[in-house]
């Protein structure tokens, strides 16, 4: 079980710290990644989030003194995969759940599994320079939510 957000201002604070590059590295957990991505998808939609998040993540990495190279830092395919998955999750739950409840339920749902991308991508492809630098289509299965739920 991961920490739960008590109110929407907790989520907004996390997003603000991430965007302003003041979020401590130790707070940038998988759950935080998912929450920030879900906030962006719910507020900006899939297309805009697909453009905004890569820039924010790369800049955040640099603010921590980390380089975005062929072997570390920002990863385009993994980022776009998670944006797609978070958009699917949000579309599924938004009629029944507030953003707060959706964020709190996400990490413990099948959508929150940190290895979800490995259901669609071989390790060889997903960890390739090509996949890090640009979006590549899955090589194991088409993007299909039946594998998640």
Strand and helix order: HHHHHH
Contiguous low-pLDDT stretches (5 residues minimum) are none
Number of strand elements: 0
Q: Which range best describes the helical content: under 10%, 10-25%, 25-40%, 40-55%, 55-70% or over 70%?
A: 40-55%
Largest sheet: none
The outline comes out as globular
Per DSSP, what share of the residues sits in E-state strands of 2 or more residues?
Answer: under 5%
Q: What does the radius of gyration come to?
A: 15 Å
Oligomeric assembly: single chain
Give the overall average pLDDT: 94
Please outline the helices and strands.
Elements: H1 8-19, H2 30-63, H3 76-93, H4 99-106, H5 123-126, H6 129-133
Helix pairs in contact: 1-2, 2-3, 2-4
List keywords for this structure.
single chain; 6 helices; 149 residues; mainly alpha
What would you say this structure looks like, in words?
This protein is an all-alpha fold. The protein has one domain. The protein has six helices and no strands. It is globular, with a radius of gyration of 15 Å.
Outline of the structure:
The chain has helices at residues 8-19, 30-63, 76-93, 99-106, 123-126, 129-133. It has 149 residues and is an all-alpha fold.
